[in-house]
């Protein structure tokens, strides 16, 4: 932070169990506040959560209040912005809402569907965050931010279904659904895990409405309505214009504690009639809607089994159908290494008795010829891991061989398409003089 004037704190840890995430949030905030004081910053900006200020806050919202208290207790003045659901393509809350509405024409829900909320578009949030630095009157203030209208979660679902061109969903509230049951249901229906869904589901019982309009008075802007916010987010989702995706959050694991020892390997290679860049691009397109080229039912079965035992399965998809970067997620993989044009390494985040990676290396053999090397590695954890590897080895001939061939065929088809396009382009006329 040395040399900076201000800093933003946008961290909320939600993927751990019980009060652990609250303790972690408190520790991180304390370290941040101390570093800000040591660097003699003029201002901190914290994005926290709306909610009633009584003792009935959910653990998630209570943790945000604790972080707020830790930051404001330091020597650096803090601007606190409190928001309810932020509506934007790729956010966890928005994805839960979208998947529930798209997949369930009839929803049996907890009684929180009648709770009032004041969501806000991500565009409006970003404006407030940036404008805080230009508005000295916000320093040391706690400001509630929200859209122009207040809605219940039931109305939010209805608006989503209308913007999606679907019939209104039948919502049946029942008093017996606990946050735990709700989070497990969200885990089964949406790509989000129960670990993320539970603190969000618990927070839905609290009314999250702005107490006043001070934020919009100090930093005027046109606030999108809830309907406009959903329409804009859906537009970005459908056009694959998603800058950040909820699944990208989380730790980048290093070597496991059993690193070393036995590593099982399945390595295959193929020569491809396409440039290195074209082959690499084809390898980067696997997963998501593109799939895995062959043995699709085996991939879907593996994803379904992983989902049932608490893993991400295939539902996370990917942020963009073409582009993939370090740390991003791709179905039940995470990009753990990338060298554009030559190397892509995916680390499995599915539930496994060991650590699995899938690596693609591309070597140039000439102007329009390349070698694609595919290597699957598995470090087993104990006897169960060894038994797991030998149990799936017979399937590798279908799965990995088909995947490699599929990428090669996709690259060659793309290469032919580009060649055909270049041949049909009109050549510039030459005027004789």
Describe this entry's structure for a reader.
By secondary structure, the chain is α/β, with parallel strands linked by helices. The protein folds into 2 domains: 242 residues, Rossmann fold, CATH 3.40.50.720; 157 residues, START domain (Alpha-D-Glucose-1,6-Bisphosphate, Chain A, domain 4), CATH 3.30.530.20. 39% of the residues lie in helices and 20% in strands. Strands 11-16-15-14-13-12 form a 6-stranded antiparallel β-sheet. A 4-stranded parallel β-sheet has the order 1-2-3-8, sandwiched between helices. Strands 4-7 form a two-stranded parallel ribbon. Helix 10 crosses helix 12. The N and C termini lie far apart (65 Å).
Annotated CATH architecture of the largest domain: 3-Layer(aba) Sandwich
The SSE order reads EHEHEEHEEEHEEHEHHHHEHHEEEEEH
CATH level 1 name of the largest domain: Alpha Beta
What percent of residues are in strands? 15-25%
Give the count of structural domains: 2
Major sheet: arrangement of strands: 11-16-15-14-13-12
So what's the overall shape? Answer: globular
Average pLDDT for all residues: 85
Please, what is the CATH homologous superfamily of the largest domain? Answer: NAD(P)-binding Rossmann-like Domain
Which parts are unreliable, with pLDDT below 50 for 5 consecutive residues or more? none
Count of DSSP H/I helices: 12
Largest sheet: 6 strands, antiparallel
């Amino acid at each position: 932070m040395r040399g900076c004037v201000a800093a933003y704190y946008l961290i909320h840890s939600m993927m751990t169990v019980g009060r652990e995430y609250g303790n972690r949030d408190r520790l991180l905030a304390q370290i941040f506040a101390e570093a800000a004081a040591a660097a003699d910053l003029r201002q901190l900006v914290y994005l926290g959560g709306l909610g009633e200020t009584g003792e009935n806050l959910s653990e998630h919202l209570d943790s945000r209040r604790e972080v707020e208290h830790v930051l404001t207790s330091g020597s650096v003045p803090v601007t606190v912005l409190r928001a309810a659901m932020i509506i934007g393509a790729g956010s966890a809350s928005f994805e839960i809402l979208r998947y529930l509405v798209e997949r369930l024409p009839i929803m049996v829900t907890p009684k929180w569907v009648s709770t009032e909320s004041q969501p806000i578009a991500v565009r409006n949030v970003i404006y407030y965050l940036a404008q805080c630095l230009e508005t000295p009157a916000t320093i040391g203030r706690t400001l509630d931010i929200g859209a122009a209208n207040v809605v219940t979660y039931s109305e939010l679902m209805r608006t989503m279904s209308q913007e999606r061109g679907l019939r209104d969903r039948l919502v049946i509230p029942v008093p017996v659904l606990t946050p735990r049951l709700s989070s497990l249901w969200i885990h089964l229906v949406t790509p989000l895990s129960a670990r993320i869904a539970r603190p969000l589901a618990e927070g839905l019982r609290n009314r999250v409405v702005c107490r006043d309009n001070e934020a919009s008075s100090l930093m005027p802007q046109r606030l999108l309505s809830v309907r406009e916010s959903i329409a804009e987010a859906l537009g970005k989702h459908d056009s694959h214009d998603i800058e950040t995706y909820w699944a990208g959050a989380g730790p980048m694991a290093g070597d496991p504690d059993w690193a070393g020892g036995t590593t099982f390997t399945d390595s295959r290679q193929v020569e491809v009639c396409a440039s290195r860049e074209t082959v690499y691009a084809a390898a980067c397109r696997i997963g998501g809607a593109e799939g895995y080229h062959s043995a699709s039912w085996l991939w879907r079965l593996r994803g379904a089994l992983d989902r049932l035992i608490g893993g991400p399965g295939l539902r996370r998809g990917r942020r963009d159908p073409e582009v993939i970067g370090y740390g991003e997620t791709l179905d039940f993989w995470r990009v753990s290494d990338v060298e554009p044009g030559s190397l892509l390494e995916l680390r499995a985040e599915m539930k496994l008795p060991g650590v699995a990676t899938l690596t693609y290396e591309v070597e140039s053999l000439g102007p329009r010829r390349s070698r694609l090397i595919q290597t699957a590695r598995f470090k087993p954890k104990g006897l169960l891991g060894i038994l797991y590897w030998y149990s799936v080895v017979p399937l590798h001939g279908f799965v990995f061989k088909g995947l490699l061939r599929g990428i090669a065929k996709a690259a060659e088809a793309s290469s032919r398409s580009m060649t055909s396009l270049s041949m049909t382009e009109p050549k510039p006329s030459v005027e004789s003089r």
